[in-house]
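Question (not urgent): is this output format expected?
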Amino acid sequence: SHRTLILPQLGAPGVAAHEVTRQAHFKVKYGPVRAADIKAFLAAGLEATPEMRLVTFKLKDRVVLTAIELISPFKYLVILTAVLWILNLLGLHLLSWKGWYPYLGAILIGGFIVPILLPWIPGRIFAWKGWLLGVLWATFVNIQQGLLPPTPASWERAAANFLLLPAISAFLAMGFTGSSTYTSLSGVLKEMRYAVPAILASASIGLVFLAVVLIRGL
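Got this back:
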């Protein structure tokens, strides 16, 4: 009964509307941003209100997207935990709540807390936001575990926390740029150019300190 194809507004960059008309003989009409507004859009005679054209990124939107961002890191955390548990059964006691929860916290900070608090964390760079909260978390962990102020027996573990935990949270926070409306492709590439080497360097040095601590513990 019609020859009109309604497409999402944000799909416009990927569609050559004139080619659709030429090849399929359908007229392309760009609808609202959100599928929930399609019913109202149709009722209004295919006319979108300014609110239908507006892209929002409120707290609810960010909460929904965090679930997607957390799937991958939690998968690897479960695998690592299983490996350490098997090693525990073999006599290498490397798995403990004291050594495990700091990394769980770093994952939650980078993949959940940073997206939730995104507009209120100082700075524009996502990796910086994750690193900043990661440093605060590492400070809390070190104080809670009695590693601060550092001593000859504790400084290596404290250093490992300060290097590894912010690196994890910064990396996961940086990954949220792909789900955000705040960034552009050029901005993401620029951030990665500087953030990725810094994160890798911090994590690598932190792993060295952690390895020293674990070897001494054995």
